[in-house]
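A.,

Following up on our hallway conversation. Structure tokens first:
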């Protein structure tokens, strides 16, 4: 298995029983994951950048939450429209998106 350069985690409020409840899910978190997947595919970064949906990070008031590893950068209040900026600025540019950083 290839080790990615970046692993992006997006809270989708996933529950063990499969029920998508919670704040991040209600704020288009699934669309955020889909947008990351599309950007990764379009930029041909599939071997360098992985994206995974997660359960709750317990920061619901700041959600949707996106975490970028190995940089340990946490973004809050992310919208589907922010994905391209995160990909351009952070993933490809190496710069934290300050307006979203927690």
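Then the amino acids I'd put at each of the 102 positions:
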């Amino acid at each position: 298995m290839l080790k990615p350069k970046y692993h992006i985690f997006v809270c989708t409020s996933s529950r063990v029983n499969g029920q998508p409840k919670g704040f991040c899910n209600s704020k288009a978190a699934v669309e955020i994951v889909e947008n990351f997947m599309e950007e990764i595919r379009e930029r041909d970064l599939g071997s360098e950048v992985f994206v995974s949906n997660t359960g709750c990070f317990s920061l619901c008031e700041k959600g949707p939450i996106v975490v970028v590893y190995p940089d340990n950068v946490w973004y809050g209040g992310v919208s589907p429209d922010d994905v391209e900026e995160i990909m351009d600025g952070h993933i490809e540019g190496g710069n934290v998106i300050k307006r979203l950083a927690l």
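The domain at 6-92 is CATH 3.40.30.10 (Glutaredoxin). Curious whether your intuition agrees with the design.

B.
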